[in-house]
Every structure is written in structure tokens, then in C-alpha cells.
Amino acid sequence: MQLHFSSAGSRVVSTEQTLTDPNSSLRRFKLIAFALLAAILLAACGGSDAPTAEPEEAPAAADTATAEPQPDPTATSAPEPTAAPEPEPTDTPQPEAEPAATAQPQQEAESESADMPAVSQTFTIVAEESEARFSIDELLLGQPKTVIGTTNALSGELTVDAANPAASVIGPIQIDAGTLITDDNRRNGAIRRFILQTNQYQFITFNATELIGLPETVDIGDEIDFEIMGDLTVREVTNPVLFIVSLQVVSDSEIRGSAATIVVRDDFNLTIPQVPSVANVGEEFIVEFDFVARVQ
To answer: What value does the mean pLDDT take over residues 83-107?
Structure first.
């Protein structure tokens, strides 16, 4: 006889009893079927939960994260074309320069109206508005004194080439030496009789030989400083001298100017008579001209 443990309790039955008892076989079948059904349910519930829920949620999160940064580069590239209209303010001053072009012809017209005539013009010295003079130092009665002799008796012409001033011609300029006067009649007589000998040599003459430092052109209103080299003749003695000249072009028909030079008495053999009251007469004296010249 064999022994078995039943699932219902802790009792021992024989094999024969089990085989012959139909109720016990039915209960055993039910227990086995219940166990199989429970195992199937547990397997179905546990296998369906794990693989399906987790992979579906992961790609959804990835898709939403990558979609957000895409609009950002489009937003930064859009404002760049707005910098193009900035150069427009720099173009606005250009039309302002156009009136300057219209002002230039006006200035040119004004300068043309102030130009000297293209042809050479001859200006004649107006004696009553001009003056020639000399000045020399001496010691009179023991006191230093500057003697000045003047005259309006001078004549001459100046031919001015405004387009080519270097081609201008000056002279001859003449002074009537017998008309020179100072502040003392006795001195005046001594100059005429003994120094200049005006009864024989009436005129002091200057002939220009070179004009130095003239501009390329001359216009009305110009003030010109230049030099004139020429020959000065006193009595029968001639020597070169250099005059410093300042000239003003007043109009196309009038010029004014002044000229000066220094002369050495011994160069022209000019001797001073001995007079008890006069001593130490200067070896040099100044010759000057102030003149007005007009087109006749």
C-alpha cells in the first residue's frame, strides 16, 4: 500500500480509496483548472503593461523638445535687412552742394567785371596831385635838422599791361629841379645855383630798365609791391638806382603809388657850399615820389 498527502489537509489515505472515490477526483480537477487560469491571467497582465507604455511616451517628449528651437534662427535673420536704409541720411547733403555750383559763376562774373582791360593802357602822371621830394640830414647852428625839399613839377607816363605786367613800361620820369623848395629861401637859392645848377640842368630824369617782382596779372583793387631798376641822371651824371614801389590799381583809368630810393651825393658829384651856420651835411639823401596817374 502507498501513502500521499492531499491538498485539503494533513491526513493519509490509501491509493485504493482515491481511485474509488469520485468526489475527490472532481475536486482535484477544479484545483488544477483554477491554478492554470490564474497563471494565464497573471502572465497576460504582467506582459502587456511593461513593453507598451514606456516606448510610446519617450518619442513624444523628444518631438516636442526639438520643435521649439526652430523658430529662433528665423527671428534673428529677419531684422538684418532693416540696416540697409541707414546710408540714406548721408545722401541728403549732396543736393545742398548744388547751390554752391550756381554761386561760382556769380563770383566769376564779379571778378571779370573787376578785370583790367586786356589791352595795354597808358597812364599819365597828374602833376597837381603828385609830389617829388628829397630829404637830407644836416647840423644847423649846432642842432640836428632834416631838410626836406618838395615840388609838384614832375611828369611821366606808365604803360601798364594787365595781362602781362612784366611787359609794362615806365618812364621817363622828369622833375623840374628849379622848382624844388625847402623851408629856407637862402637854402633854396644855394640848391639852385651851386648844388643842382638848375640854370644849366633843368631836369632830374629817371629811366626804368627793369621791373622786378610783378605778379602774373593785375586786377582792379590790387595793391602791388615791386621794384624798379633804372638810371637816375642829375646834371650830366647818370648812375643806376633801385626804387622800392607800392602801387594801387584804383580803377581801369586810375592808379596811385609811391616810390623811394637812397642816393649817395658823391656818386653824382653833388657838393655842399661852405656856410658858417651849416655843418655835417649827410652823405646820403632819400628821393621819393608820390604820384597819381590817369588815362588821358
So the answer is: 49
